[in-house]
Specification:
It is a single chain. Helix content is 44%, strand content 18%. By secondary structure, it is of the alpha/beta class. Among the domains are: 119 residues, Malate synthase G - maily-beta sub-domain (Beta Complex); 132 residues, Malate synthase, domain III (Malate Synthase G, Chain: A, Domain 4). Helix 1 packs parallel to helix 8, helix 9 packs across helix 10 and helix 20 crosses helix 23. The longest helix has 39 residues. Pathway: Carbohydrate metabolism; glyoxylate cycle; (S)-malate from isocitrate: step 2/2. Involved in the glycolate utilization. Catalyzes the condensation and subsequent hydrolysis of acetyl-coenzyme A (acetyl-CoA) and glyoxylate to form malate and CoA. Its EC number is 2.3.3.9.
Length: 708
């Protein structure tokens, strides 16, 4: 049972109070913090509640509009007029530009991959922070990025030759020599410029400006589209000794930024969990987070990597970041927390996250050039905002947090996740509401699809999940996000991002497909692992995103009419086999994720799909699957009995997929555990869940398991 202490009329969980007062606060007394936070809660919690009430009211009106027109052909003009009347759609604001200042180069100027990782797991959090640099040789050698695989327990020379050939061919594309190929380089010499011996002749880079300098050990540093590439020279190594030039590796700047996530990828349901989340973020901001773990029979300690130092062509020392620039993703407006009670009731978790994560980041601000943000900013990503009113509220919230902590106005920079329909439809107004803090917008297919289905729940049955990628609304959504970012002046000030690559083991496919993200004008995109970040970074070597953005700025904006076209299955009947296949696919996905979340508190992991392909999943995946089945149930595409039968068919499959996990508790044959019940509730109660979110049911189930 949680023990509480009184702080200015707030009941604060004792472990949280100790963490904040003994470790988090810097240059601020406990009395100052709690008095300010108590006033903030009393002022803003009612406004938070009013915004949630407006979400419910709008959804009731939209549901009613669709019910009244059931069976009629969808009328887009009438629909948009209705949405305007009820305040769902707001007028487009007059032209404006972002006023954001003091933004680090990794966000404002250089395009590259972005990792998203659960901060609740210290090892994962450190891996993400350290993914700023990655070995291209290792990323190619150990994945399917190139055909074949390594054979035997030791180094496979044949595989190594494949890797080296791919890497040298890539250098020929993105940092070509004036004459010859990187495959034939025999020696390097530096004398204010880079001289390369190829086939007995001395040449240089075709673009001499790509030479950035050399390290103390003689490694060659290149810069391509702002990203660093290090040619590692080590003639004593197993690879370098067989290379004419002694090249043993090609290290490339990979994850420029990393979102340390307190939201969808964690299962933090109570005060104890929140202390773990905040404690790890604090360690990252202080620079002293460490994690000890066993690997290969050895006990290892992981800590944050140091910076990279080299000499530029003029002989001046350059210190380049060795770690990804870290942002923290706090929770949205919906959930409350038992970590702090006001008048005996739980308080908005979004406010606790804001106060504690920013207070922890003050340790980083005190570190200056050695810290995370060299520009003196704190970067917060806010998910699941519905429209400009909520964006304006968040701007006010972080302004109040700055007042409580004594920070200059707009120290906190905000990233607005464009993953809810009302935000997409009013994106320019949303950006304007945070225009002096905004450094990030992005698209997220899964959450956005979940909200698309929930908002249009009563309009009719939606198309099969696999067809959603071709829906009219989705193309408008992806293009419209870029259009809005460019129109607001995001170039040179912030990130326009694209969503996650969900198949961490399918790197060949990622290399083929994900170059579409920078080609779409996005200067960052999410990846599921450090290895994926290294491989995705090669796309940014090939695409000048800033130049592309300048060209895209003149195109016609994506049509709002397309964006607001529901993805309905009109005039079409599915066969019984097609329905069964869709049910099994979704039920297996739901069960596979929920059982780990509820029973083990795992918020993000590689979950095998129905075909045993590992997918990186978090709550966004769950939201789309549960809303999809809830919609089909309402419109008679399937029955409750068919869904129950599918759940019972898929539970044994999920059990078998987890058979090697000693902590796993099977769902079959009794089907009476908390995880199975939660999965079922997510479907059958899905239409009633606020915005189709999964958190309320998941949190209740996980708390029950922890209490037991």
């Amino acid at each position: 049972m949680t023990t509480y202490v009184d702080r200015h009329g707030l009941s604060v969980a004792a472990p949280l109070a100790r963490l904040i007062e003994d470790e988090v606060l810097l240059g601020l007394s406990a009395d100052q913090f709690w008095s300010g936070y108590a006033a903030l809660l009393r002022d803003l919690a009612p406004k938070n509640a009013a915004l949630l009430a407006k979400r419910r009211e709008l959804q009731v009106q939209i549901d009613g509009w669709h019910r009244a027109r059931r069976g009629q052909q969808f009328d887009g003009d009438a629909y948009r007029e209705f949405l305007t009347e009820i305040g769902y759609l707001v007028p487009e604001p007059e032209a404006f530009e972002l006023g954001t200042q003091n933004v680090d180069a990794e966000i404002a100027q250089v395009a590259g991959p972005q990792l998203v990782v659960p901060v609740m797991n210290a090892r994962f959090a450190l891996n993400a922070a350290n993914a700023r640099w990655g070995s291209l040789y290792d990323a190619l050698y150990g994945t399917d990025a190139i055909a074949g695989r390594a054979e035997g327990p030791g180094y496979d020379a044949a595989r190594g030759r494949q890797v080296i050939a791919w890497a040298r061919a890539h250098l020929d594309k993105v940092a070509p020599l004036a004459a010859g190929s990187w495959a034939d380089v025999a020696a390097f010499e530096v004398d204010g410029a880079l001289r390369v011996t190829v086939g007995g002749h001395v040449t240089g880079l075709a673009d001499a400006g790509q030479f950035a300098g050399t390290t103390a050990g003689g490694n060659v540093m290149l810069r391509v589209n702002g990203l660093m590439i290090e040619i590692v020279i080590d003639r004593a190594s197993a690879i370098g000794r067989d290379d004419p030039a002694g090249i043993s590796d090609v290290r490339i700047e990979s994850a420029l930024t990393a979102i340390q996530d307190c939201e969808d990828s964690v299962a933090a349901v109570d005060a104890d969990d929140k202390c773990v989340v905040y404690g790890n973020w604090l360690g990252l901001m202080r620079g002293d987070l460490q994690e000890r773990f066993e690997k290969g029979g050895r006990l290892l300690t992981r800590a944050l990597n140091p910076d990279v130092t080299y000499l530029d062509p003029q002989g001046n020392e350059v210190v380049h970041p060795g770690r990804a620039l870290m942002l923290v993703r706090n929770v949205g407006l919906l959930m409350t927390t038992d970590a702090v009670l006001l008048d005996g009731k739980e308080t908005p978790e979004v406010m606790l996250d804001a106060a504690v994560t920013v207070a922890a980041a003050m340790h980083d601000l005190a570190r200056g050039a050695e810290g995370n943000s060299r520009a003196g900013s704190v970067y917060v990503v806010i998910p699941k905002l519905h429209g400009p009113e909520e964006c304006a509220f968040v701007d006010t919230l972080y302004g109040r947090v700055e007042e409580v902590l004594g920070l200059p106005q707009n120290t906190v920079k905000l990233g607005v996740m464009d993953e809810e329909r009302r935000t997409s439809a009013n994106l320019m107004a949303c950006i304007k509401a945070v225009k002096d803090r905004c450094v990030f917008i992005n698209t997220g297919f899964l959450d956005r699809t979940g909200d698309e289905i929930h908002t249009s729940m009563q309009a009719g049955p939606v198309i099969p999940k696999g067809e959603m990628q071709k829906a009219i609304w989705l193309a408008a959504y992806e293009a419209g996000n870029v259009d809005a970012g460019l129109a607001a002046g995001m170039t040179g000030r912030g990130q326009i991002g694209k969503g996650m690559w969900a198949k961490p083991d399918a790197m060949a496919d990622m290399l083929e497909v994900k170059i579409g993200h920078p080609k779409a004008g996005a200067n960052t995109a999410w990846v599921p692992s450090p290895t994926a970040a290294t491989l995705h970074a090669t796309h940014y070597h090939q695409v000048d995103v800033a130049g592309l953005q300048a060209a895209l700025k003149g195109r016609d904006r994506a049509a709002r009419a397309d964006l607001l076209t529901p993805p309905l299955m009109v005039g079409r009947n599915l066969s019984g086999e097609e329905v069964r296949r869709e049910l099994d696919n979704s039920c297996q996905s739901i069960l596979g994720y929920v059982v780990r979340w509820v029973d083990q508190g795992i918020g993000c992991s590689k979950v095998p799909d129905i075909n045993d392909v590992a997918l990186m999943e978090d709550r966004a995946t769950l939201r789309i699957s549960s809303q999809y089945l809830a919609n089909w149930l309402i419109h008679g595409i399937c029955t409750a009995e068919e869904i129950d039968a599918s759940l019972r068919r898929m539970a044994p499959k999920v059990d078998a997929q987890n058979a090697q996990d000693p902590a796993y508790r099977p769902m079959a044959p009794d089907f009476d555990g908390a995880a199975f019940k939660a999965a079922r509730d997510l479907i059958f109660e899905g239409a009633k869940q606020p915005s189709g979110y999964t958190e309320p049911l998941l949190h209740a189930a996980r708390r029950g398991v922890k209490a037991a």
